[in-house]
Amino acid sequence: MCFLDHNFSQSWREQYQLFKTSEPDHKGLGRVLPVNLDDKHWVAIWISIPKRHIVVWDSIPSSSVPDAWDAIMEPFLQMVPYLLVECAATEEIRVKYGLEPYTYERPLQGVPTANNGDCGVYSVKYIECHALGVSFDPKDFARCNAKKMRDNMAVDIW
To answer: What residues does the Ubiquitin-like protease family profile domain cover (predicted)?
Structure first.
């Protein structure tokens, strides 16, 4: 499991055009590796390296235009393979990862929805539940419990 810093993810998205147009280095990689949703909305993403697939859990799906998601996800789909290959310890692992783009899905059914302002809390809870192998059924994420979840997280973090 990995958490990306907000500034890193924003930089990654902003640098994507440079990444697309940059020349590979002597290993065929070396592109600028530069992700955030307009400083307004948090989502949780799960990257399955073996399946080469990304799942986006969005607690407020109405906060973005559905047609925009291909563009939002393109930097992840294209650059995660390069990041893995560049960081691989051996040539054998590099070949195993490959540079083919990942796929993604953004399920809209069965994802608990949050009130405006609670998307960050829900994103962290999605990640926590996924890491623990616990389902995050909408009935367990009642909107009325968001303040309690936020308070519990603050205590845990503090």
So the answer is: 1-130
